[in-house]
């Protein structure tokens, strides 16, 4: 009897220790005097809070009926049967990615390539590092010399390692210039000139960066195949090298008998179009942008004195996530604002689309646009998302087939094994050139992943861990 009471007290003590620390992230504690030799997990008092990324809104988890519940005027076999599915919570860009945002990506790729070429030409460096000569652009490990860390010395001796090479980190603190009158020396000029089109390919001798050289290299793991093979390793690492500059010729190629040359000449790079959605971007380019966005945040976290945890990756939304977010919390919403009408009580259109046959812009007072519109030109939906109907259609991560809904899961449906391999990708939302029927939240469309169009853009999402206690707005 005495032993039974003792066991009960010990169990009660263990429960008390655990319950008093409930709600925090567990970390392993070293057995010692504080735990009296028992194996006890130590918990932080603070629970995990997911920080909302800038320009994104939280989409709460929930269930909805996925598919085209409204009348299908096209009677196409791609109309999928209705299916109730559940999606987890995630953050989503409140607008489509704009020209200004995508230009940051292109500029980063351009600068990193230029700095890499300069670092290779700089050799061991040996200058003061303020941009007065090409030697200032040497790799950080070369500049460190005797001050190099043991790890840098090891990598230098071994010639680096496969993939990312710590010994070839670029020094981004040294100013970079593309102004020919500010080139520090002839060697610098030689390297920078290699970034431009050769004189024989120039029009009116205009110096233009060779866009074909602007390639973003990254790696990702084919987890699904690895799990199927019951293995892990480098053979499941996919290496990508994607030319990132958008195809500006889409404005002419998509409309052979229309005068769209002004958009071809300046839609992507003119300041007037900064807050217009980027177009002419393929599915692969959109995925590369997601990787860059993740890298940008990850590099920032690593730069802090008190390093933060690795951020959740940014990615394209699945087809189910996109449709769920588009409905804005309204059950069976025909359009993101509910429906079924296309105008508000003042007669103003609720999205940017083609109102009538031949009418791309019916009346400026009604809020219609000839082509794309600046983001946030129309009212947001119940989740705070703009342009989930019209303006530009949007890439999703999901492959496209007329049987997708039938064999996909009812919990976070996503055909991951087919996503990378299938050429056809699901495109959602309709665009500025489409009639209202194509703007319905349940309407499905597709495009080849290597195609770029003047009416297709994208937005990104980021997972919210299931254990998150609450969302917090980004303060910086």
UniProtKB/TrEMBL annotation:
Pfam families: FGE-sulfatase. GO terms for molecular function: formylglycine-generating oxidase activity. Keywords: Signal. Residues 1-25 form the signal peptide. SUPFAM superfamilies: C-type lectin-like. The keyword Signal applies. InterPro entries: CTDL_fold (IPR016187), Glid_motil-assoc_lipo_GldK (IPR019866), Sulfatase_Mod_Factor_Kinase (IPR051043), SUMF_dom (IPR005532), SUMF_sf (IPR042095). Residues 55-461 form the Sulfatase-modifying factor enzyme-like domain. NCBIfam families: GldK. This is Protein involved in gliding motility GldK. The lineage of its organism: Bacteria, Pseudomonadati, Bacteroidota, Flavobacteriia, Flavobacteriales.
């Amino acid at each position: 009897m005495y032993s039974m009471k003792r066991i009960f007290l010990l169990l009660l003590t263990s429960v008390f220790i655990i319950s008093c620390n409930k709600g925090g992230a567990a970390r392993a504690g070293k057995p010692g005097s504080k735990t009296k030799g028992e194996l006890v997990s130590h918990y932080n008092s603070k629970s995990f809070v997911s920080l909302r990324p800038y320009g994104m809104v939280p989409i709460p988890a929930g269930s909805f009926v996925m598919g085209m519940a409204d009348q299908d005027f096209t009677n196409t076999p791609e109309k999928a049967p209705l299916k109730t599915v559940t999606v987890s919570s995630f953050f989503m860009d409140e607008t489509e990615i704009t020209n200004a945002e995508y230009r940051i990506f292109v500029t980063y790729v351009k600068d990193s390539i230029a700095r890499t070429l300069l670092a290779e030409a700089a050799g061991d460096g040996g200058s003061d590092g303020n941009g007065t000569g090409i030697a200032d652009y040497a790799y950080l490990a070369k500049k460190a010399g005797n001050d190099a860390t043991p790890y840098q010395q090891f990598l230098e001796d071994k010639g680096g390692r496969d993939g990312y090479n710590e010994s070839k980190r670029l020094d981004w603190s040294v100013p970079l210039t593309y102004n020919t009158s500010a080139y520090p020396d002839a060697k610098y000029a030689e390297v920078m000139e290699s970034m431009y089109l050769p004189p024989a390919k120039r029009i009116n001798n205009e110096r233009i960066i060779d866009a074909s050289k602007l390639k973003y290299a990254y790696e990702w793991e084919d987890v699904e195949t690895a799990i199927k093979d019951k293995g892990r390793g480098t053979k499941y690492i996919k290496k990508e090298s994607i030319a990132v500059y958008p195809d500006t010729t889409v404005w002419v190629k998509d409309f052979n008998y229309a005068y769209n040359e002004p958009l071809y000449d300046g839609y992507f790079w003119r300041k007037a179009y900064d807050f217009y959605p980027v177009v002419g971007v393929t599915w692969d380019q959109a995925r590369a942008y997601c990787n860059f966005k993740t890298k940008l945040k990850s590099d920032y976290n690593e730069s802090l004195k008190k390093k933060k945890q690795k951020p959740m990756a940014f990615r394209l939304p699945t087809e189910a996530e996109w449709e769920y977010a588009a409905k804005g919390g309204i059950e069976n919403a025909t359009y993101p604002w509910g429906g079924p009408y296309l105008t508000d009580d003042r007669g103003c259109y609720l999205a940017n689309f083609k109102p009538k046959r031949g009418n791309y812009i019916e009346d400026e007072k009604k809020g219609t646009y000839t082509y794309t519109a600046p983001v946030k030109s129309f009212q947001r939906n119940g989740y705070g998302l703009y342009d989930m109907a019209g303006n530009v259609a949007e890439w999703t991560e999901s492959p496209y087939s007329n049987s997708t809904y039938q064999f996909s899961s009812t919990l976070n449906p996503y055909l991951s094994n087919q996503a990378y391999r299938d050429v056809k990708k699901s495109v959602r939302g309709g665009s500025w050139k489409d009639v209202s029927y194509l703007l319905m939240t349940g309407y499905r469309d597709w495009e080849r992943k290597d195609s770029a169009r003047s009416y297709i853009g994208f937005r990104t999402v980021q997972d919210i861990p299931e254990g998150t206690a609450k969302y917090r707005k980004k303060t910086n």
